[in-house]
Amino acid sequence: MVSPIVVALDFPSLAEASSMARMVKAHVGAFKVGLELLWAEGPGVIPTIAGLGLPVFVDAKLHDIPNTVNRAARELGVRGARWVTVHATGGSAMIEAAVAGIDAGSSEAGILAVTVLTSIDEATMATVGIQGPVNRRVASLSALAASVGAEGVVCSVAEVPFVKSAARELLAVTPGIRATGSAPDDQARVATPEAAMAAGADLLVIGRPITRSPDPEAAAAAIAEELAPGRSPPTQ
Ligand code: C5P
């Protein structure tokens, strides 16, 4: 994968998601299939999107007992997911079961553990009884995820250094990407693409800034150009 840009295909139909994916494909490195598309169309979307030639990140956000997560992760791996997300707060046995499940389904896929959602700030954490600060929480969940074989974690840009110091080998995957001055939407902890790269992020998950732009292809191209000036469009 050459480009770190992962486009979140947050659409209610495969037709809309595929059309967006084709539009931006030359400028990005992977596609993310999330809950909206998975629930609307089912897991059959995974091989279809993978057929476009870029890796597919399945943002399933699994969180259940280890056996159930193991079997679900296997099914997603079989269908061609390159990455599958689980909630790190499911604990080490659950994350480990997910890793074993995806390994059983695919030799090339890995698990990403979601630490603290980028829509959540410390005040929200407190309302559900989770102690901050966010940084410390992300660091401890990262160490946990790494200890049982996760390939990476999902966190906001501000926490990337804490992920890397907890476990250098983990991929740091960052949603909450916004250009300076653009609307944060429902995201609480946002950063620009350049700031994400400077912080050491490995993959940048970008949805609405590309997919709700009046010209998605131009938006994707502009972000790609900002990240790697003059580089030709990526190929897998
Ligand atoms: O549109 P936007 O760029 O905010 O999309 C971000 C994407 O990343 C969404 O698909 C969202 O579900 C996902 N995500 C997130 N925060 C996390 C994990 C995933 O925003 N911690």
Task: Tell me the strand order in the biggest sheet.
Answer: 1-2-3-4-5-6-7-8
Average of the residue pLDDT scores: 94
- The share of residues in helices is 40-55%
Q: What's the total number of strands?
A: 8
- Strand portion: 15-25%
CATH architecture: Alpha-Beta Barrel
Question: What features would you describe in this structure?
Answer:
The protein has 236 residues and is of the alpha/beta class. The chain has one domain (5-226): Alpha-Beta Barrel (TIM Barrel). The protein contains 11 helices and 8 strands. It has helices at 14-24, 35-41, 45-50, 66-78, 92-105, 122-127, 134-147, 160-166, 193-199, 208-211, 216-227, and strands at residues 5-8, 30-33, 56-62, 83-87, 110-114, 152-154, 171-174, 203-206. The longest helix is centred in the middle third of the chain and has 14 residues, at 92-105. The radius of gyration is 17 Å and the shape is globular. The termini are close together. The mean pLDDT is 94. The structure holds cytidine-5'-monophosphate.
